[in-house]
Amino acid sequence: MSSVSILRSMLIIIIVLSFGLLTNVQAKPENGKKFKDWTVVCEKLPSTKKEICNIFQNVSNDKGKVVMQMAIGYPPGKSEAQLLVTLPLGVLLQPGLEFKGGTAEAIRVPFSVCVKNGCVAIAKLNAGIIKGMKAGTKGSVKFAAATKQIIEVPVSLSGFTAGFNSLKK
Questions:
Q1: Which of 15, 41, 77, 113 is the most buried (most CB within 10 A)?
Q2: Domain total for the chain?
Q3: CATH for 91
Q4: What is the pLDDT along the chain (169 residues), one digit of tens a residue?
């Protein structure tokens, strides 16, 4: 199964479980459109037939294996975006993860659920975090492996501003 298929499956599962998280009701971005390191993905929810769109980025290690998937979108009827990070099974759950986007302050994000494809953390992204992500060129996600080793995964913000702006008009 390709990483895009895995991401789509994960997003649908999480969205259904959380009653429509990461939906965008204000705009209809072009599915599959790339904004440098970010890509728009739109899917119809099986339960409501509503289309949801978000931007996502896969982060791979030096061997080409996807080690993290990140998606950003809007909950229904909300003006505040949400971040969804999926990490491989085997992370230490209790401390959650730390997300730093560009010049924004780092935030601590608890894990919501672990499924077959990984463990998922979801956080609200306020205007300050979005502004920091737009102003920066890189971010990071820090988490602890089950061995308690701290791992930091870099996140590219190249194309984030254009991709994010395509979600909300």
A1: 15
A2: 1
A3: 2.60.40.1880
A4: 455 444 454 544 444 334 344 443 444 688 999 999 999 999 887 877 778 899 999 999 999 999 999 999 987 667 899 999 999 999 999 999 999 999 999 999 999 999 999 999 999 999 999 999 999 999 999 999 999 999 999 999 999 999 999 996 4
Give the residue from 74, 166, 59 showing the smallest Cα distance to 126. Answer: 74
* pTM of the predicted protein model: 0.81
Q: Count the residues in the chain.
A: 169
Beta-bridge mates of residue 36: none
What distance in Å separates the CA atoms of residue 17 and residue 31, rounded to the nearest whole number? 23
For residue 72 the two structure tokens come to: 């950003």
Rounded to an integer, what distance in angstroms lies between the CA atom of residue 125 and that of residue 73? 10
- Cβ-proximal residues to 154 (8 Å cutoff; 6+ apart), any chain: 59, 138, 139, 140
